[in-house]
Amino acid sequence: MTQRILFIDDQMDLWANAFQEELGQFDFEVLCEEDPSKASRLVSSYQPDAVLLDILFPKGALGKPTLEKIKKHHPNLPVIMITSTMDKAEYRPEDYALADYRYSKEALRGGDFSDLAAQLNRLIQEAGARGETPSDDTGMGTFGFIVGKTEAMKKAAETAERVARQDHTVLITGESGTGKELIARFIHKRSGREEDRFVAVVCAALARELLESELFGHEKGAFTGAVSQKKGKFELAGNGTIFLDEIGDMPLETQVKLLRFLQERTFERVGGTEVLQSNARIVAASNQDLQGLIAKRTFREDLYFRLNVIAIEVPPLRERKEDIPAFFDHFVKRANAKSHKTVMPILRDDVKDLLLSYAWPGNIREFENVVDRAVALSKENILQVSNFPGLDQGAADRPPVSTDLSRYVDQVFRKEKTWDDLKGEFGAKGSLRKQLILGIIDRWMDLYHRRPTSKALAELLDISDTNMRRLIIDNGLQLTKIKKP
Amino acid sequence: MIDLIEKALKTIFPQSDRVAICHAYGRHERTGDLFDGLEDVKARRARGDLMRPVLIYGFDPEERVREHESGSILDAPGVFYVRLPARLSDIDAIIQKAAHVEIPAHQAIDEKSFCDYAVKQIRAFKHRLDNVCASMEMNANRARKELERSPGVMPRALSEFKASIIQNLLTEYGELDGLVKRIGIPGADRVPGMMKQLLIKVQEIEGGKTDPTESLNSAFFCVEAGQAMSTILGRAKEL
Questions:
Q1: Which strands make up the sheet holding A3-8, listed edge to edge?
Q2: Could you tell me if A18 lies within 8 Å of chain B, comparing CB atoms?
Q3: Residue A84 and residue B131: Cβ atoms within 8 Å?
C-alpha cells in the first residue's frame, strides 16, 4: 500500500521530480519541502510514514535541529538523513544519533532508487512492528481504501480479501464514485497475479467497434483507421486482471464475445481469425441494476450469472456517514501533498455537521474533489465551513439522492448527448451542472490518465471553446493542477 | 537585546555614523536565530561593502572572541572590539580613535580572513555544483535506462536538464569570480568557459532538437564537464 514520505531538501529543482517518479514506482508518495522550518508542521498535517532529511541548507546545517524537533514530538517516526558530497566530510554521526539511517545521494547517481526504497520499507516495517507508526484504524493501510466502521463496507472488504487469491470472476456493484476500482485493484494486488498487469476498461465510454478493439485488439485493415495490428487488453493483461467498469453499458454484441471468453478463455482480434488465449482474471463493476437491465433485455442473463460468481456490493457514502471523519482525515492529507499545503486534518464540529448533512450523490469521488478544492483554496490551517461553498445550499438546488450523473456522463462520451441537450434536462440546477462537468472530467482522467484541456472538453460537449472556458470559470472549476508556490 | 544595545550605543554616540557598530555573536531573543556579527563583518569587508571602521562589542573577553571561527577579523584595519559592560568614556575613546582611521581600499581585510571567507564561499558554490552534477548523473542514468526500454523515444528524465539551473550557477559564479582570481586557484581561469559550454549543451538537451541518443550523450558530457569544474574548485581547500 502507498506509504507517505516527507522529503526536506533545499534544492528541490534538482531532486523533486526524480524522487517522486522513482519512489512512486515503489508505491511511495513523496511530499517535497525546501524549508526545514516547516518540518514539524508538515509531519503533523501530512503524517508521513518516514522522513528524508537533508543536512545543509542555505542558512546552515539545519538538518540537526530539524531532526531534533521531529524526534521530540514524533520519536518513532523513521528519519533518514540524506547526505551529499559536502556533508560527508562534515557528518559527525554523534550529531545525528537520533536519526534512523544515513543515506548518501551518491548512491542515487546510477539512477537506481531500489535500495533507498528497500531501506525506507525496512524502517517503516520496523516502526510498524514496534507498533509505533501512526495508528490506522481505517483499513487504508491494509486495503488501500477506507473500510471504516460500516458493517456493509466491512463485509465488502472481507469478501474482497477472502476471494482475492481465488480465480473466480468478481462483480462489484455500487453507485458511481464509491471506489469500486480501488476494490478491484486490491483484489488484483492480493491475487497472486500482481506481477502481471491490472488493466481497466470503462465499457460505457466507447462505441462498440472501439470497445471490441480495445478489449480484443484488431488486425491491420480490420476497419477504417486500423493501420496496424493492435493488441487488446486481454492480450496485454497476460495473467493479470482486467477490470471491466460499467459493464451494464457494454453493447449486446460485445457481451456475446465476452461470454465466449469467460466460457472458453479464447478470443479473436477484430478482423482476425487466429484464436488467442488469455488467462486474465475478470473483475467487473456496475453502477446499474443489472437484473433490471436483464428484464429490459439490454444485458444478457447468462453473462450476468458468469460474472456474478462472487458479488461485492459497495455502499454509497450517504449510507456510511460514520466514516466521513476518516475520509476527511485521509483526503486532507492527500490534498496537502497535491497542493503543497499544510492544512491540519482537524474536523471542526460545524464542518462535520455540514459534511454529514450533504447527500454526496457523487460519493467518495465527489467527497475527494470537494476536500481537494477546500484544501487548495484554504487560507486557514484548519478547514472552515466557508471552505465548502455549495454544500450548504438549500435542498432545492441539491441533486436528488437517486440522481446518477454517470448515466449522463456515459451519454456524453458515447456522443449521444451534447451540452445543449443536457442544459435542457438539467435546467437551472447550477450545482448539478457543476457535478456533471466534474463527472466528465473525472471520466476523462480515468480513461486518459491526464486532465482534459478546455478545447478537448469543448469538442466532447460540442460547444465553442469560448463557451467551454466560460462554463469552467462560471462553475469555479480548474483544469490545470495548482502549481507549487 | 542585541538590537537594543546597538540602538543605545548609537543614541549615546551620534558621531558613530562614521563607525559601524556591530554585536560579535549571539542569539536574537525575539526570533531565536543565531547572529554572527564577526562573520558578517568579514563577508562585507571581503566584498568591499564595508569600508568604514567597525566597533564590535560583546560580553566575552577578546581572547575568546578571537577563538571564534571568524575571530581573525579583529586583526583587519579599523576593526575594534569592546567588551561590555564598559564605561561610556572608554567606549567613546575607542569610537573617537576608530573614527579617524582611514582604511586603504586594498587592505580592508587581513589576508587570513579574506582567504577563509573566499574558500568558504567557493566551497559553498562547489557544494551546489556537486549537487547539480549528482542530479545530472542520476538523470542521465535514468534516461539511459529509459532509452534501453524504449529505443528511439526521448527519455522523460532528460527533461530534468534545465538551462535555468546552469544559468543560476553561472550568475553565482560571476559574483565569485573576483574571489577566485584573488586567491589564485590553479586552472580556475577555465571555469567560466566550461560553464558556458555546459549551458549550451543543456540548452541543446532542453530544446529537444537532437535525437534521443545524441541527447543522452550530451547529458553525460554535461556530467563530465560539471565534475571537471568541481575538481578545479576543489583545489581551493588546498590553499
A1: A28-33, A3-8, A50-54, A79-83, A101-104
A2: yes
A3: yes
* Inter-chain touch A86–B160, beta carbons under 8 Å: no
Q: Which residues of A touch B157 (CB under 8 A)?
A: 18, 111
pLDDT given for residue A428 in this prediction: 47
Q: Is B124 in the same domain as B207? A: yes
- What domains does chain A contain, in order, with CATH numbers? 3-129 (3.40.50.2300), 143-313 (3.40.50.300), 317-392 (1.10.8.60), 405-474 (no CATH)
Q: Are residues B24 and B132 in the same domain?
A: no
Residue in chain A lying closest to B157 (CA):
A18
* Contact call for A111 and B138, based on CB within 8 A: yes
Same domain, B115 and B166: yes
pLDDT at residue B182 above 60?
yes
Predicted local confidence at residue A485, as pLDDT: 37
Domain stops at, among B52, B72, B107: B107
The whole model's pTM is what? 0.53
Provide the shortest C-alpha distance from residue B98 to chain A (in Å). Answer: 32
Where among B107, B131, B162 does a domain terminate? B107
Q: Report the mean per-residue pLDDT for chain B.
A: 86
CB contact under 8 A, B131 and A110: no
**CB nearest A111 (choices: B127, B128, B141):** B141
Give residues 119 to 158 of B whose Cβ lies within 8 Å of A: 123, 126-128, 130-132, 134-135, 137-145, 156-157
Does A228 lie at the interface with B, CB-CB under 8 angstroms? Answer: no
- pLDDT, tens digit only, all 485 positions of chain A: 678 999 999 889 999 999 999 999 898 999 999 999 889 888 888 889 999 999 888 777 888 899 998 988 888 899 999 887 555 556 677 788 888 988 988 889 999 999 999 999 999 988 877 654 454 556 666 676 777 788 888 888 889 988 888 888 999 999 888 889 989 988 998 888 887 888 888 888 678 888 899 899 998 887 777 778 888 888 888 889 999 999 999 999 999 999 999 999 899 998 888 889 889 999 999 998 899 899 989 999 999 999 988 899 999 998 888 889 888 988 888 888 777 788 888 888 889 988 988 888 888 888 988 998 899 888 878 898 888 887 765 433 444 433 467 778 888 887 778 888 777 666 545 667 777 888 888 888 777 767 788 888 888 888 888 888 888 877 777 665 433 33
B226 and B117 assigned to the same domain: yes
Asked whether the beta carbons of residue A111 and residue B140 sit closer than 8 angstroms, the reply is: yes
Interchain contact A86–B (C-beta under 8 A): yes
Using the beta-carbon criterion (under 8 Å), do B165 and A13 form an inter-chain contact?
Answer: yes
Is A13 part of the contact surface with chain B (CB cutoff 8 Å)?
yes
How close does chain B come to A261, measured CA to CA in Å? 32
Predicted confidence at residue A360, as pLDDT, reads 87
**B164, B70: one domain:** no
Q: Kindly report, residue by residue over B68-110, the tens digit of the pLDDT.
A: 888 888 888 889 998 888 888 888 888 888 888 888 877 788 8
**Partner A contacted by B179 (CB < 8 A):** no
Report the pLDDT value the prediction gives residue A483, as an integer from 0 to 100.
38
Here the CATH number for the domain that contains residue B221 is 1.20.120.340
- Residues from chain A that touch B128, judged by Cβ atoms under 8 A, are 11
Taking the Cβ of residue B66 and every Cβ of chain A, the question of whether any pair is shorter than 8 Å is answered with no
Name the region of B158 (left: φ>0; alpha: ψ -120 to 50; beta: rest).
Answer: alpha
Do B205 and B226 belong to one domain? yes
Q: Do B79 and B120 belong together in one domain?
A: no
The answer to whether residues B20 and B82 belong to one domain is yes
Range of the domain at B33: 2-107
Q: What's the CATH number where B59 sits?
A: 3.40.50
Looking at the 3D structure of chain B, how many domains does it have?
A: 2
| B interface test, pick of A23, A69, A85 with most B CB neighbours within 10 Å | A85
Q: Decide if A112 and B135 are in contact by the 8 Å CB cutoff.
A: no
